[in-house]
Every structure is written in structure tokens, then in C-alpha cells.
TrEMBL record:
Family, similarity comment: Belongs to the transferase hexapeptide repeat family.
The keyword Acyltransferase is assigned to this record: yes
Name of the protein described by the UniProt record: Serine acetyltransferase
Alphabetized CDD domains for the sequence: LbH_SAT
Alphabetical list of InterPro entries matching this protein: Hexapep, LbH_SAT, Trimer_LpxA-like_sf
Keywords annotated in UniProt: Acyltransferase, Transferase
SUPFAM superfamilies referenced in this protein's UniProt entry, alphabetically: Trimeric LpxA-like enzymes (SSF51161)
Amino acid sequence: MVSTNKEVILVDVRRWAKILHLNDNFDWLNLLYLLYKYPEFRTLYYYRIKKSNFIGFIFMHIIKFFYRECPSLFLYCDNIGSGLFIQHGFSTIVSAESIGDNCWINQQVTIGYSSENEHPIIGNNVTINAGAKLIGKIIVNDNVTVGANAVVVKDVPSNCVVVGVPAYVIKRDGVKVKELLV
């Protein structure tokens, strides 16, 4: 209620509630349930509060006493779009330049630097499956699925599915292909 990021937090709550098949009656009840049950949501929630005003920041520290963050989920990103869903936060590091709206990140994902200033940009509606690595100054465009354990070190075009080490395209615009990333 006191956060300047209230609208983004509400989008997060509604997306998590939809994915987890929670009751749609009241956003505040879903928020309390998510804070109680999901440490991954708590980490995202605290990230949002840290980016808001001072009153929210103080309130966050009071809540953290009761609801701990996910200890192995790290969000080091200046701009995370609304609706981010983190299915399992175990051993997950998100260190992107930016992440678009409605993204989905699974466990043991690394999104990170290849050098001091070279980190990924993630578009909208991107799904990053378990164990995937996205490294360096790359752009993962909109509507992309990164397969489990894929290693992405080159730009990924929109509307693709990529898999493998190094990652390559297996589906583009709904059509099966086998293309190397350029």
C-alpha cells in the first residue's frame, strides 16, 4: 500500500496467483499467502520494495524478520519488468542489464557477466528453463524459450526455442529448424 511500485507488485501477485491456481478474490490475501509460502516470491517482493520509497524500505525490513528471502536466489538487475515468475529459486543468479515483462525463470539458472560491463538483456515473455546459462553482452529477444542446461552466448531472435551447448535454434515462429545463433 505504501510502495511507489504498487502497480508492478500487483501485476506480480496476479501472475503468481494465476500460475499457482490461487483464489482470485483478493490481491492482498494472495500477497499474504505468497509471502508466507514462497521464498522466491519474497525475494522478488523485497527487490520491488527496495526500488520504491523510504517508507516501503522500512516496512520491508520489518516483514523480513518474519518472512525470510530465498537464500540462494540473487537478483542483481537494475530493471526487472512486471510479472516475473521464479519457479524454484535454488542456486539462481540473475545479473542482467534488464528483464522484460512476464518472464519465467527456473532453478539453477545463471544470467550473468562475461566481464565487468557485459551482461544480458532479456526481452518480454522469455522462459529460461532449469540450469540454463545466459552469459555476456547478449540480447534475448521477446517470446523466447531457453531449454534446460542451454548455454547462450550469442543474441537470440524473437519467437524462438533454443537448446544445447552452445545454444542453437530448434524452433522459429512455430516451425522446426536447426539454426546456429549468429
